Amino acid sequence: MTDKELLLAISDLFDKKFEEKFIPIKQELKEIRQDIAEMKQDIVEIKQDIKELNRRLTLVELTLENEVKPNIMLVAEGHHILNRKLDEALQVDNEKEMLMIRVNILESEVRKLKEQINQIA
Fold first, then answer.
1. pTM score, two decimals?
2. In whole angstroms, what is the distance from residue 54 CA to residue 76 CA?
3. What is the CA radius of gyration of the chain?
Protein backbone atom coordinates (compact mmCIF):
# COMPACT_ATOMS: atom_id res chain seq x y z
CA MET A 1 0.00 0.00 0.00
CA THR A 2 1.10 3.42 -0.78
CA ASP A 3 1.30 6.15 1.76
CA LYS A 4 -1.70 7.82 0.18
CA GLU A 5 -3.79 4.66 0.36
CA LEU A 6 -2.63 4.08 3.90
CA LEU A 7 -3.60 7.62 4.86
CA LEU A 8 -7.00 7.17 3.21
CA ALA A 9 -7.55 3.91 5.06
CA ILE A 10 -6.59 5.53 8.35
CA SER A 11 -8.82 8.48 7.53
CA ASP A 12 -11.75 6.16 6.72
CA LEU A 13 -11.15 4.20 9.90
CA PHE A 14 -10.94 7.41 11.91
CA ASP A 15 -14.15 8.72 10.25
CA LYS A 16 -16.00 5.50 11.08
CA LYS A 17 -14.83 5.58 14.70
CA PHE A 18 -15.64 9.25 14.90
CA GLU A 19 -19.14 8.65 13.44
CA GLU A 20 -19.72 5.77 15.86
CA LYS A 21 -18.89 8.08 18.77
CA PHE A 22 -20.56 11.13 17.28
CA ILE A 23 -23.95 9.57 16.35
CA PRO A 24 -25.05 9.06 19.98
CA ILE A 25 -23.99 12.62 20.77
CA LYS A 26 -26.01 13.88 17.80
CA GLN A 27 -28.99 11.87 19.03
CA GLU A 28 -28.64 13.28 22.53
CA LEU A 29 -28.43 16.82 21.13
CA LYS A 30 -31.56 16.18 19.09
CA GLU A 31 -33.36 14.97 22.22
CA ILE A 32 -32.11 17.99 24.17
CA ARG A 33 -33.42 20.30 21.44
CA GLN A 34 -36.79 18.55 21.58
CA ASP A 35 -36.84 18.90 25.36
CA ILE A 36 -36.01 22.60 25.05
CA ALA A 37 -38.80 23.07 22.50
CA GLU A 38 -41.24 21.35 24.89
CA MET A 39 -40.00 23.51 27.76
CA LYS A 40 -40.49 26.64 25.69
CA GLN A 41 -44.07 25.57 25.00
CA ASP A 42 -44.57 24.85 28.70
CA ILE A 43 -43.22 28.31 29.55
CA VAL A 44 -45.65 29.90 27.08
CA GLU A 45 -48.51 28.02 28.74
CA ILE A 46 -47.30 29.01 32.22
CA LYS A 47 -47.13 32.66 31.14
CA GLN A 48 -50.71 32.42 29.85
CA ASP A 49 -51.80 30.84 33.15
CA ILE A 50 -50.09 33.64 35.07
CA LYS A 51 -51.85 36.27 32.96
CA GLU A 52 -55.19 34.57 33.64
CA LEU A 53 -54.44 34.38 37.36
CA ASN A 54 -53.49 38.06 37.41
CA ARG A 55 -56.75 38.93 35.64
CA ARG A 56 -58.75 36.88 38.13
CA LEU A 57 -56.83 38.39 41.07
CA THR A 58 -57.65 41.86 39.79
CA LEU A 59 -61.34 40.91 39.60
CA VAL A 60 -61.24 39.58 43.16
CA GLU A 61 -59.53 42.74 44.39
CA LEU A 62 -62.10 44.92 42.63
CA THR A 63 -64.95 42.84 44.08
CA LEU A 64 -63.47 43.15 47.57
CA GLU A 65 -62.96 46.87 47.21
CA ASN A 66 -66.25 47.75 45.52
CA GLU A 67 -68.70 45.24 46.98
CA VAL A 68 -67.50 43.34 50.01
CA LYS A 69 -65.84 46.20 51.90
CA PRO A 70 -68.84 48.58 51.57
CA ASN A 71 -71.21 45.78 52.61
CA ILE A 72 -69.09 44.99 55.66
CA MET A 73 -69.14 48.68 56.54
CA LEU A 74 -72.95 48.69 56.27
CA VAL A 75 -73.21 45.64 58.51
CA ALA A 76 -70.80 47.19 61.01
CA GLU A 77 -72.80 50.42 61.01
CA GLY A 78 -76.03 48.49 61.54
CA HIS A 79 -74.39 46.53 64.35
CA HIS A 80 -73.30 49.78 65.98
CA ILE A 81 -76.85 51.16 65.74
CA LEU A 82 -78.32 47.97 67.21
CA ASN A 83 -75.76 47.99 69.98
CA ARG A 84 -76.62 51.59 70.86
CA LYS A 85 -80.35 50.78 70.85
CA LEU A 86 -79.72 47.78 73.09
CA ASP A 87 -77.78 49.99 75.48
CA GLU A 88 -80.67 52.46 75.52
CA ALA A 89 -83.18 49.68 76.13
CA LEU A 90 -81.06 48.25 78.92
CA GLN A 91 -80.79 51.73 80.44
CA VAL A 92 -84.60 52.01 80.49
CA ASP A 93 -84.82 48.54 82.07
CA ASN A 94 -82.25 49.55 84.67
CA GLU A 95 -84.19 52.70 85.49
CA LYS A 96 -87.43 50.71 85.69
CA GLU A 97 -85.79 48.18 88.01
CA MET A 98 -84.46 50.96 90.24
CA LEU A 99 -87.95 52.53 90.39
CA MET A 100 -89.47 49.16 91.34
CA ILE A 101 -86.93 48.80 94.15
CA ARG A 102 -87.71 52.30 95.39
CA VAL A 103 -91.47 51.58 95.25
CA ASN A 104 -90.95 48.38 97.24
CA ILE A 105 -88.89 50.28 99.84
CA LEU A 106 -91.49 53.02 100.04
CA GLU A 107 -94.33 50.50 100.35
CA SER A 108 -92.40 48.80 103.13
CA GLU A 109 -91.89 52.11 104.91
CA VAL A 110 -95.59 53.01 104.49
CA ARG A 111 -96.56 49.62 105.97
CA LYS A 112 -94.24 50.25 108.94
CA LEU A 113 -95.69 53.73 109.43
CA LYS A 114 -99.25 52.32 109.31
CA GLU A 115 -98.31 49.72 111.93
CA GLN A 116 -96.84 52.45 114.15
CA ILE A 117 -99.99 54.57 113.70
CA ASN A 118 -102.17 51.56 114.52
CA GLN A 119 -100.13 50.90 117.66
CA ILE A 120 -100.46 54.50 118.80
CA ALA A 121 -104.18 54.65 118.12
1. 0.50
2. 31
3. 49
